[in-house]
Sequence to fold (948 residues):
Amino acid sequence: MYKYILKRILMAIPVLIGATFLVFTIMYFAPGDPAEIILGSNATHEALEALRIKLGVNDPFIVQYGRFFFNLLRGDLGISYRNSMPVTSLIADRLCNTVYLAVSGILFAVIVGIPVGVISAIKQYSLLDDIIMFATLFVTAVPTFWLALILVIVFSVNLGWFPASGMGRGASDFFVSLILPMLTLGCGYAALIARTARASVLDVKRQDYIDTARAKGLSENVVIWRHMMQNALIPIVTVIGLNFGVLLGGSVLTESIFSWPGVGRFVVESITYKDTPAVLGSIVVLAILFTLVNLLVDLIYAVLDPRIKSQYQSAWKKG
Amino acid sequence: MINMFSRKIGKERLNRVRSPLEQAASQFKKNKMAVIGLVIIIVLFAVAFFTIIIDFVTNDYIYNNYVINQNLVLRLAPPSASHIFGCDEFGRDLFMRILWGTKYSLFIGIGAILLAMFIGMPIGMVAGYYGGRTDNVIMRLMDVILAVPSMLLAMAIIAALGTSTVNLLIAMSVANIARFSRIARASVMTVKDNEFIEAARAIGANDMEILVKYIFPNAFSPNLVQFTLGIGNSILLVAGLSYLGLGVQPPSPEWGAILTTAKTYMRDAWHISVFPGMFLVISVVAFNMLGDGLRDAMDPKLKK
Amino acid sequence: MSNILDIKELSVAYHTEDGTVYALNNIDLELEDGETLGLVGETGAGKTTLAKSIMRLLPVPPAKIEYGDIIFSGENITDMDDEEIRAIRGNKISMIFQDPMSALNPVLTVGEQIKEAILAHNNISEDEAWSKSLEMLETVGITKNRARDYPHQFSGGMKQRVVIAMALACNPQILLADEPTTALDVTIQAQVLAMMRGLKEKFNTATILITHDLGIVAQMCEKVAIIYAGEIVEVGNVHDIFKNTAHPYTKGLLEAIPSIYADCKRLKPIDGLMPDPTIRHEGCAFSERCIYCDDICIHNQPPAVQSVGTDHKVRCWKPLCSTLS
Fold:
């Protein structure tokens, strides 16, 4: 089991390194002279040149990447062009907020999505199944930012139940202001999970071992919960992990609309201000987060499916 | 039970041979939702072409005077008889803007994913077919691309290259290229070791011929399904990027772009928020219904 | 000896969007205590449907028992409610399925799955059930220390042994075995069949052995029933079926078996296909393919059970052989 996790981590590392290289290369082409952005266009030519040398932007590409990478390993993501603060601390301040939002979105999606999908599959062909299928089709088509707008218009502006933006002060404010963003982020995800859950349960339902379980005289409840669910969860968990990246993308839009102080909103702001180190640092951090979540999914997957566990255990026992 | 049906179908086959295409088409017709989706998509295309033709014929007269023309008297006017969707913060008729915005979502949305498919499929087919080192290298590259959440990747590319339509298309396709290549590779690998490939080699077909004549048709259908289902996401991505100011630039009335300022005025002008979004939802739902219908028609295991 | 299972005029249909499939038409079947009955037929003849009907495992919309009675041990179980039938499943009547590769839940250990079957019908402690489960494994030739292994760690033949252990764990009176060795290769098949014979002697379980392989029937069964297009066309003891074959279909099946000794150039299949199950046919179901077919066969249903010997019945207007004087 540990071998499996170790192997997965070892495989993820080169991919992550490649990802940092990819993003760095892309941002390398970003327009704008860092020295000018920091000092302003009125600065003298000498001052600009001096700053350029100090920042290292005249160095060859590979040197710049090398510098970036080694600093990354030490936790240093560079200095923001916008306010000359270390990017690492700027992101650190905001990362928790993004994580809170993402986690609450996932929790909502899982708590709502899985039961809905399972019920839909158990009651296949019924009216309820058709309604759920149509509803999920619809919900996955709704743009995140539009859903946010509508929710805000209905619940904030007209009903005044929830704040339209920000995080407020204190714990209770925090939770209240979390609701609308959580719903925005979680609804599409919930619909996707519901569809996957339904397909997965339907697939498991027609497996022979379900017939065997019934033939043993087990009650329908036991058949569903003990035999169907654990098997059905496997593909669901995979989908949750794979789509976490979409969730992160969605959080960019959600945070922007709700002025939620997270990394997503930070990326948008930084792009607007051409703050390349900040953009680079944020995207790299989010990519690392995504990879970690996928590793977690792999771990859960191994726990659920004994076929994976034993691949890495001692000798295959041949019968 | 399945055996009894195969017996029944066997009897039918003895009477009349139907090609797989015919079977798929009849299955498709039975799926009403897919047909509704198709109708909506046709209407959308009609609107898009309509607006393009009008612009061409009138030399942008209508565009200049009705779509981007500012008329501050009508600022934020609510829906009424003369302006069925109301007006935006510059007094521009929202209905006209939405109509003229159709072509962006449709063509950029479809274009981006088409581009991704044309580049991604061959890459995946090559990786799957040749296997070994080539496969490893290509797939690692695709993994690297997919390690970055696709929205962020697109944003980074636009930040770096600027906000033109071409850059938008490039930015949007990169992640999808990786996805299509994976799917193509998977289907190639299932077909590759089949005996009819060996047979083809035995009669002297070279690699290129094998790839094109035998492997491609098999790799195509899962990609086709991914294609139609991906158009919906593509449309949402364009809208999202435009909303953030990174996609289609104002004053072009792309639906997401219209929504950019909607938040500021949401207290007084709910109509700016509601209508463009509705069109986005309808378009994406239509493509998803079409995609589901296609997938069900091609995969007999999913039939009721 | 008394009949432990009595099926009378059983008719089952599937009602689907694409039409109604008449899967079983007027099935009459008797099974004596401790007897092994072979149920032989082509794919699609209705063998599995029949077995599942006995256990009430058919999916109830679309399937429906249109008519008929299933009498088990003197009790009519056709209309029993869910709770009652569950008490019988796995306990008094067990079923094993065709494909061992997919018959076991991949995420539970084999010991656990057997224990589950035991606990479902016996009010004993978990530990007792676990040790009983280990005993069952040993009975089918699997060492006890493999109880905590998962199904994928076993080969096909071993998996089928586990399935059999599970089915026999509660010492049922009837075992329904649906093509238990079809998915296994021949050497393993022989092993499993030998084991089943041993178990049958030990537990004296009445068995309905569903198969399309007449060789297995010859080895394992005392009585044989031939099923075609949802009907039992011939039933009798194994000697009569092979030596005094009465129904043309049975004859066709026997002749279709390739023989090492015969000096012939071509196999002798039975021409044609089984009739469309969505159409209720007028006359005999086999008439289209029968070489002895006559007018009466095409237009009239042959009488359900016509005796042609001791305990030998056939459904045919023109039985090929009769040992009645």
